[in-house]
Amino acid sequence: MKAPLLKNIESQVLSVTIQELREPHFDPNWHFHPHYQLFTVLEGTGTRLIGDSIQPFEPGDTVFLGPDIPHLWRSDAHYFEPNHDLTTHGIVLYFQEDFLGKAFFNLPEMHAIDQFLKESKRGIEFRGEARQRVRTELLGLTQADGFERIVRLLALLNELAHSAEGVPITSYGYENNYKVSETERMQKVHTYVLQHFKEEIRLVEVASLAGMSEAAFCRYFKTRANKTFTDFVNEIRIGHACKLLQEDRWSVSQTAYESGFDTLSNFNRLFKKVTNQTPREYRKAYTGKA
């Protein structure tokens, strides 16, 4: 099934769109759109892909994205199994930069928000108390409309613009180099890796999915994703390992093999490269257990 990379989110009535999402799993299609987006996860776990960033997500995950940043919240595999009783829940808000007129955010009084919108072109993840503030406000905005919705949104943007709890998501200088015509190709690659990362992934098979030679695919992927295909696969695997270490049900060696690594030494080396911590340090920081 083809999935449009360019997602169309338009309302003929409202300038600010807010949706409460309750589904068996989040939208599995990797996409981008010309809107600013504020999203918080209330229920569900999986892997979050934003630009060139790959991170696990769980309830509380809260991000603000500028226009045209490719993104995907891919629910864990068990959310796609038949007859499961799991559900995902999130709230997302969309608006375009000119929803209050082309010059509104150029006003002196809007300087902080204007700067915040510029910084969001890398995506911003919010942590700490800011997460709870966003969750509370988004829940309130689902019940607001008209003038109240606009005023409350501006107040929230102003608060986030002054928050010290926002962290850039993509790497410095990241740009979206994807074209709409590449939708099906990249969707196939992402889906395949997210479904098979626990197994050996052969480059020849993935290149074939993309309809390219191995050498051409490697060049293409690095140009578009700002990283090699091998690094992409390893980051998916490390993200899964992070979730297992947070659950604290597996030993480090079990976590390594369950995440698709052939050797413990390779797992330890790559884990520290990606997270700047050893697996044991990461588990201790998250659970308090050595």
From TrEMBL:
GO MF annotation: an example: DNA-binding transcription factor activity
Protein name: AraC-like DNA-binding protein
PANTHER family xrefs: ARAC-FAMILY TRANSCRIPTIONAL REGULATOR (PTHR43280), TRANSCRIPTIONAL REGULATOR MTLR (PTHR43280:SF27)
InterPro entries: Cupin_2, Homeodomain-like_sf, HTH_AraC, HTH_AraC-typ_CS, RmlC-like_jellyroll, RmlC_Cupin_sf
Organism: Rhabdobacter roseus
UniProt entry tagged with the keyword Acyltransferase: no
Signal peptide start-end: none
Domain HTH araC/xylS-type: 187-285
Xref: Gene3D superfamilies: Homeodomain-like, Jelly Rolls
Keyword entries, A-Z: DNA-binding, Transcription, Transcription regulation
Domain of life: Bacteria
